[in-house]
Write a structure and sequence with these properties.
Elements lengths: L12 E3 H11 L4 E4 L6 H9 L3 E4 L3 H15 L3 E5 L2 H17 L3 E7 L2 H5 L10 H5 L5 E4 L6 H13 L5 E7 H5 L1 E3 H6 L15 H12 L4 E5 L1 H5 L3 H11 L3 E3 L19 H7 L2 E5 L20 E6 L11 E6 L2 H11 L9 H23 L7 H13 L5 E5 L2 H9 L8 E3 L9 H12 L3 E6 H7 L3 H6 L4 E7 L27 H6 L4 E5 L2 H14 L3 E6 L30
Bound molecules: adenosine-5'-diphosphate.
Length: about 575
């Protein structure tokens, strides 16, 4: 390894900055996403000079989301670098979101003088960052001595990627970064983590228990979650699904693990599959709100669950798990293949036919909806155009957030390749768009299309400048209906715009032009298709502002039922009425 340490003096010395960079390089960290300022500017400079790619953002939240997405895509921790207090706090949303989504990420923040913070003497950007980070991270560590930098970084890396991956906070006080030590002694403190995410195997009897359940099932179903995508066990999963004939339903970020058009996909008969299945095998998917906690009426109340997950505490968190398979997905599927007798697990034809019939009916219904081409443009029309163009470009990474923009795109745009869809995830969070898109472009060197509701886009829109500065192949498609959910809500007092109203006449395409990117305005699906085709061919930063009917969209999209049902919701009357 080429170290960043200054070795030229007769008495070679190094400091905390150099040791931090050397420790990251020693552990193959190749990219840092961040926002510079006191006290970490020189850390970023030095990282860059030492060959680590540094991507400078406009807001720490976006840098953090990029680091989290990098973790999901690569199985290595993405690193986000922030300044102290406010910058640190801005990064915390992303750190918490990474932890909730089980993405490995490390937020490294500089911090103020410990003795001033602890006695609350009012230092510049004073905050007890370690304590603040603790509830939002898988773990939080502070390095208090320069000779512990290597240890701190090694611990952060192992904690982020081992077991259930998550976000780790690493606090490095400014004084530690600036501390000077003997170069050889400093170098001797660094360590390379061996096998940071070791394989974890379930016991043979746990595997046999699951095999027996599946073998006796009349209506088995596999649910693939984003943990299955993360695990990069694509071949084993596919082999299991195809050799057993079990129908499967992909969660949104598991789309493409098997191509969406796969004959065993029950995505287009999802409700029936959940309601009728008698043995459900969850693979890297939690029975959380996204799966209605495994409860009736969405699920068969008599269903038995098998859960494949690396986190033992996930078992029984919602429904009783009849066959827990605690281990990493690759190892679990290796063992299933090894221990099941040929033909022992086979999905009955009647069940497969039942789902296929429902799928055919639903696909025909959807085809009718897709055929319609109303004006002004609706979400579905714009997204059909995006889908048709992306059919020709399966290598494109798709980022997706919004309410209706998310729900509709998830149903309309099918995925062909694993880990090519990144979206709002477990929290249903808005603001991941540009950060995730930048990470996909940087980590994979591939084109990215970010399909964004106009409201969702606003949270990270300033990163268009970042995309243009680094000339990244990101095409942002803004579905602009002029509002949060929809753009036609009115304030009964006729003063300010309503709480959900944005500007329908906003021209997001002109925003990217301010930074030298290519802007397009689309008012019909044909415009959308032409613009996207052109932008992908050009291969540079672009934004397509799609004028969507302001009355299109439903409040809260598919999750309107999560709004509390007070007497006034959606029915606010003016005082005069
Ligand atoms: P989705 O939202 O797609 O349903 P979740 O985020 O709810 O997915 O679930 C992902 C699950 O995958 C988590 O419970 C996590 O512990 C698990 N997981 C992550 N990586 C692995 C792995 N390599 N092997 C097994 N389980 C994993």
């Amino acid at each position: 390894m080429t170290t960043s340490t200054l070795q030229t003096a007769e008495n070679p010395r190094t400091d905390g900055y150099h040791l931090a960079v050397d420790a990251l390089k020693l552990n193959d960290i190749q990219t840092i996403y961040g926002v510079v300022g006191i006290p970490i500017t020189d850390l970023a400079r030095l990282a860059q000079a030492s060959g680590i790619r540094y991507l400078g953002f406009r807001h720490e939240s976006d840098a953090g989301h990029a680091a989290a997405a990098a973790g999901f895509l690569t199985k290595k921790p993405g690193v986000c670098l922030t300044v102290s207090a406010p910058g640190f706090l801005n990064g915390l949303v992303a750190l918490a979101n990474a932890t909730r989504n089980c993405f490995p990420m490390i937020q490294i923040s500089g911090s103020s003088e410990r003795h001033l913070v602890d006695l609350k003497q009012g230092d510049y950007e004073e905050l007890d960052q370690l304590a603040a980070a603790e509830p939002f991270a898988k773990a939080a560590y502070r390095v208090s001595r320069v000779e512990d930098i290597g240890l701190g970084i090694a611990r952060a890396i192992r904690t982020a990627v081992s077991g259930r991956p998550g976000g780790v906070y690493l606090d490095i006080p400014a004084a530690v970064l600036g501390e000077v030590v003997d170069a050889a002694a400093g170098a001797a403190t660094l360590r390379r983590v061996v096998d940071p995410a070791p394989r974890q195997l379930p016991a043979p009897e746990a595997v046999d228990r699951a095999i027996e359940l599946l073998a006796g099932a009349q209506r088995p179903l596999v649910v693939l979650g984003k943990g299955a995508a993360y695990a990069q066990a694509d071949d084993q999963i596919r082999e299991f699904v195809e050799s057993t004939g079990i129908p499967y339903v992909p969660m949104s970020m598991a789309k493409g693990l098997l191509p969406d058009g796969h004959p065993q996909s029950a995505a287009t008969a999802r409700s029936l599959a959940l309601r009728r299945s008698d043995v459900v095998m969850l693979v890297g998917a939690r029975l959380n709100w996204l799966l209605n906690h495994g409860q009736a009426p969405q699920w068969n109340p008599d269903a038995k669950f098998i859960q494949v997950d690396i986190a033992p505490e996930e078992m029984d968190s919602n429904q009783p798990i009849a066959a827990p398979l605690v281990g990493d997905i690759g190892s679990v599927f290796d063992l299933l293949a090894e221990r099941a007798k040929p033909g022992q697990i086979a999905a009955p034809a009647a069940w497969r036919d039942e789902l296929a019939a429902r799928s055919a009916r639903n696909v025909a219904k959807m085809a009718e909806r897709l055929k319609a081409d109303p004006h002004p443009m609706q979400f579905i029309g714009a997204l059909k155009a995006v889908r048709d163009v992306l059919h020709e470009h399966p290598e494109v990474y798709l980022v997706n957030e919004g309410a209706n923009a998310l729900d509709t795109a998830r149903n309309v745009i099918d995925m062909q390749v694993p880990r090519h869809r990144l979206d709002s995830g477990t929290w249903g969070v808005m603001g991941i768009g540009m950060g995730y898109a930048i990470a996909a472009a940087v980590e994979k060197g591939a084109p990215v299309v970010a399909v964004e509701g106009d409201s969702a886009f606003g949270f990270s829109g300033m990163e268009l400048e970042t995309i243009c500065r680094y000339q990244l192949p990101v095409v942002t498609v803004v579905l602009n209906n002029g509002g949060v959910y929809r753009g036609d809500d009115v304030n009964p007092l006729e003063t300010d715009p309503s709480p959900t109203t944005l500007m329908p006449e906003a021209r997001h395409d002109q925003m990217i032009e301010a930074f030298g990117g290519k802007g397009y305005r689309a008012t019909t699906p044909a415009d959308v298709a032409a613009a996207l085709t052109d932008a992908l061919a050009a291969g540079g930063p672009a934004l397509i502002d799609c004028a969507i009917d302001p009355s299109a969209g439903t409040e809260s999209g598919h999750i309107a039922h999560l709004n509390p049902k007070g007497i006034t919701v959606g029915n606010i009357a003016s005082p005069e009425q």
